[in-house]
Structures are given as structure tokens and as C-alpha cells.
Write a structure and sequence with these properties.
Rossmann fold, six-stranded mixed β-sheet, alpha/beta, 5 helices, 13 strands
Length: 242
């Protein structure tokens, strides 16, 4: 019996421009400035041209995403990758703007999909969401001891609308996301440290972020809490940022 063929490990081409957008509501979110400073340093370290907007309203979340899409599509050189960081109060599927109105996350995500942003078609799009997704609190539990389609030479090559996207949430569905008034959020601070200090594909780095967060004990309301991020990926290739 012959040995199985190894999986093809194709990588995204990261030789082009790298663009990042951060939309952050700082109002009633103490510690946000610490996160913004950390993100700015990370994007600079990873070679991203970064745009940061503070205190967008719900409508401005949508407007700034559309502006970012237009910037990407009109960029003079090829764009290799886009990062979007969204930080606000929230609930499952929604973010709260500075005006206390809500905006749907899916409406923000779809602005950069393969249909709506041609310059990012088949390119990696990474969304980082630092926001609550519900009211549940995790006290923790005790534990013991690519190729999908074959095409002929004369067939047009197509990709699904929603591939090449990575959604990284600061917490799992239904749960609170934690943020320290002076030190910033555990999620953003851990992510930045791992992305700057470690090498590997982005999914390997995010696994390390999850491991570190799972090991932390967070004090809230006088009790120790646990929290871990959630990663949703439709990436078709390995994505390396370093």
C-alpha cells in the first residue's frame, strides 16, 4: 500500500501592500487607548499601513468600512492582505456605536468579501473583534490527570464568495469579553504580544493566543473568570505575516 500524498501547503503571496483599519469606541471603555497603542505598534512591526478611527457611530462603522474598501480597490500597487479590528460594546452579531445604536457585524464583514472588494478577491481578510457576545460568564471547569475542486484547462476558475476570510472574536458566542481599565483587554494584549514575538502561520499564532488566554485567571466582580477567543476561518492557504 503506497504512502498517502502529503497535503499541499500553499501560502498566500504577501509581497504586496498590507492595509489595516481599526475602528474603536473608547467611550465608557476604559483601557481602549492601551489596546490602540499596542495595535499600532503591532501593525508597524508587521509592515501594515494602518488607519485608526476613534468613537464611530453605528452608521460610521459602516461608512468607514466602505471607505476602506474604496481605498483598497484604488491602491496603486497590488494589495496582499487586509486587517480590520473592531472594538466596542456588543452582543451576539452586533456592535454598539458611540451613539448607542447597533450595527450588524455581518454588514461590516461583507464589505470586503470576494464579491464587493475586487482588490481582495482571493486575498486574506482578517477581522479581529474585541466585543462582548452576550452576558454569560465562564467560571472554568476542572480537568484531570486543498484541493476541493478539479477543473479542466478550459474551465474558468472560480472561488466561493466567502473564502479567504478569518474572523477572530475575543470571546465565544454568548459570553462577555473582558477589558482592564488601565492595562487594556486581555485578548488584544495577548494577540499583539504573540504576533510580535512568535513566528508561524496566523492560525498557529492564534492557537498560541488561545492557549495563553485559556491559562489566565481574570478577576471580575470579585470572582475568577475564564475566557477564550473563537476563531472562524475560510482561509484556503497558509497566511504568514512575518
Amino acid at each position: 500500500m503506497s504512502d498517502p500524498q502529503p497535503l499541499e501547503e500553499e501560502e498566500y503571496d504577501m509581497s504586496g501592500a498590507r492595509l489595516a483599519l481599526t475602528l474603536c469606541v473608547t467611550k465608557a471603555r476604559e483601557g481602549s487607548e492601551v489596546d490602540l497603542e499596542a495595535l499600532e505598534g503591532m501593525f508597524q512591526y508587521l509592515g501594515f499601513k494602518s488607519i485608526m478611527k476613534r468613537d464611530p457611530t453605528a452608521q460610521q462603522f459602516q461608512e468607514e468600512m466602505k471607505k476602506f474598501q474604496q481605498v483598497i480597490d484604488s491602491w496603486e500597487e497590488p494589495v496582499s492582505c487586509a486587517f480590520v479590528v473592531l472594538m466596542a460594546h456588543g452582543e451576539e452579531g452586533f456592535l454598539e456605536g458611540e451613539d448607542a445604536e447597533m450595527v450588524r457585524l455581518d454588514d461590516l464583514f461583507q464589505v470586503l468579501n470576494n464579491k464587493n472588494c475586487q482588490a481582495l478577491r482571493a486575498k486574506p481578510k482578517v477581522f479581529i473583534v474585541q466585543a462582548c457576545r452576550g452576558e454569560h460568564r465562564d467560571l472554568g471547569e476542572t480537568v484531570g490527570g486543498d484541493k476541493v475542486l478539479m477543473i479542466t484547462d478550459d474551465s474558468p476558475q472560480t472561488i466561493p464568495t466567502y473564502t479567504d476570510t478569518l474572523h477572530v472574536y475575543s470571546t465565544v458566542e454568548g459570553y462577555i469579553a473582558y477589558r482592564h481599565d488601565e492595562e487594556g483587554s486581555c485578548f488584544i494584549q495577548t494577540l499583539v504580544k504573540v504576533f510580535k514575538d512568535r513566528k508561524g502561520s496566523i492560525l498557529e499564532l492564534l492557537t498560541e493566543v488561545t492557549r495563553r488566554m485559556a491559562n489566565k485567571e481574570l478577576l471580575q466582580e470579585g470572582r475568577m473568570r475564564k475566557v477564550n477567543p473563537e476563531i472562524q476561518s475560510t482561509l484556503r492557504k497558509r497566511l504568514y505575516l512575518q
